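chain below, 833 aa
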Amino acid sequence: MKILRRPLVGLLFCTVPFWAGCGTSDKLEAPVSLTWEMGASNIEPGYYENSFVLTNISGSPLSKDWTIYYSQLPRYVKQEENPAVKVEAVNGNFFKMYPTDSFKPLAPGDSMRISFLCSYKLDRNSHAPEGVYWVATVDGKEGKPLPIALNALPLSSPESLPGYPDATNIYESNLRLKNVPVLEQSDILPSVKKVVSAEGYVVLDGKVSLTYSDEYADEARLLKEKLHDLYNLEVDGKAPVIIALEPLSDKVQAVNDEYYNMVIGSGRIKISAATPHGIFNGTQTLLAMLKNKTAPYQLNAMSVEDYPDLLYRGQMIDIARNFTTVENLKKLVDIFASYKLNVLHFHFADDEAWRLEIPGLEELTAVGSRRGHTTDESRCLFPCYDGGYDPDAATVGNGYYSREDFIGLLRYAAERHIRVIPEIESPGHARAAIVSMKARYNKYKETDVEKAVEYLLSEPEDTSRYASVQYYTDNVINVALPSSYHFMEKVIRELAAMYKEAGAALTTVHLGGDEVARGVWQGSPKCRVLMKEKGMTKPHDLAEYFITQMAGIMQRNGLKFSGWQEVALGHTEEAHRQLRSQAAGVYCWNTVPGYDEVVYQIANNGYPVILCNVGNFYMDMAYNGHPDERGLDWGGYVGESISFSMLPYSIYRSLRTDGAGNPVDLEKVEKGKTALTAEGKKNILGVQGQLFAETIRSFNGVEYLLFPKIMGLAERGWNACPAWEKLRGVQERQAFDKALALYYEKISDMEMPYWAKNGINFRLPHPGLQVKDGKLYANTAIHGAEIRYTMDGSEPTVQSALWEAPVKCDASVVKAKTFYQGKESLPITLRTE
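prediction:
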């Protein structure tokens, strides 16, 4: 054990035992501090070095009776055979370290280095350990958890990390956006289909009149609220300008249920549609047209015809990993509706939490919605991600929606024409439910055995060994237990009752179905019996059995099932026949090159498909490889230009660069791959963004990862066939660049000022930099933004030099940031040597 002797300066020594704390405060404090740093990579293939420096900051020697816990994204740990302090995984992304027999007491003020190897790369600062706390053992009993101050040192040489954004490449990309078109009043997001300009204009000044048919009363009320709240326009029946919401006189015009038309002119704004949803879409277009204007609001005369190409346009929000309050989720619903998204995929259950009250299954929230220090998970789940050790604290690890909360959310969303599709992750990603039902079993096993096993999801005798993608070893429901199906049907029926009470339609429940690890069920006696009874020969037969059983349960309850792409893969033709007829949507997510053909294969096979392309629509992917960008990157980087480039009917051409940022040859990328048939094309129902929350620690972080990249999702769901899709070569590149320039102009001039004014967090892209002929050039994709820079290696601030024109540069390092609407980008570094 290597002891580092370090003097303690300014510390108060105390003679009481370290677990009792120091000073006169009643607040207990851990007797140690920790510093973490990442060492060299590839010490062994696929492993990198980690070190904790543990310092005794108490006035007493540090003995062996303690354990330190922390959270970190999942990884395997390797360590020397006889370390003084052992580091190991507890489960998934929860770790602990504790002294071994070779540990020697650590004197006050002394430090020791604890080194070990970890699998998986670590190239961003947000992936460092977090949520560190201390638990001492006194007289054989655990003391209270105490927080430990962790100093996580930033990654060294960040500019050399793989994926670090190249300032010169950004500069070259931004140059292609230089021919920015002048924004027209109708240039909103998502883009409208058809606009015909006319002579004249209408001015909205202070007051407007609002007329509507009774069937559009809800839409009129919401429009009235928005006109007041956003633009200070009051509805007054005597006002000279009339906004009229009217039924479409010729319903044959309606391309689909969301079609609307709008006519502006002669002191009148008329929005017509065949359905309330169409009227609502028209009101959102009107509100969007006012975004970049100041009072009095002048709208040029025109007629608009508009409708979406895809009738499913959704966004999934994961509140299991990062709890998002119902108030904040309503905020998102309102924003989504303003961009004409119409589905909220409610991901309320996963391995790390269950977030919805289910009457009769109180353990799901009493245990499954709380994370904190525990040795047996009888009253809460293990800490993870945020690392909170107090299951009663108001953290993103704790919380759930009551039945009343959820009913209120359903009503709120329905008023805004957003369907809420709940997801019960099963049979994998179900750890929170499994642990909760174990707690229920233990609560009743001595008094009511029948009640104890009624909803049990695991088999005590199961010896299966597996590890999920997230490194969990106990997160898959046992599909041979009748109680597993009792549980699922109970939850589904309770969900249906909530929807009924809310007056909202429930047509499908998403059943998950993804990422079931190899090795599950192989050690289960119940599964072996079932396989023998049914003539099954391989583990996939059990997965097929589960999804077909669940499809039947859904059908008995008047519902269709939905699931991730795995629910439609590898089945017998008999199973396919059943599932095709009972599926509401198969959510195809794995479009990483090499797997991307699966999407069109599923559509061609007759399943209804929702395109969830990881490379374009996984909002939890980091914007780029900058070490301070939160997010994951296993599916690539996703920014606002990448979501914009997605092509529903040409998915192989949806990614214009590879994982290393190199241009893709769009002329060759489709060759030899599964083509989408005419029938398959009819099965493409829509698009959806995903925001999984492993790296998110606040609602501020939710918004940062959504805005502005969600604008590409909104645009492509509404306009699925952009002009450049049918072009090739130079013409294609020019058409794409022109469309992208207009897209950025809309984001810059309309959306970002709107977000800033209305308290919506968003991200600014890095500026581009180039040194040419001894001069510094800079540019940005954001129209109207400032670029501030330094040449002395310091971090740019709002007081740093403003780049306005090429400036002499002989510095070896240039750093710059984008500043706009009270926000600033992360810094980017250009090394000139």
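The CA atoms of residues 135 and 145 lie 5 Å apart. The radius of gyration is 29 Å.
thats it, cya
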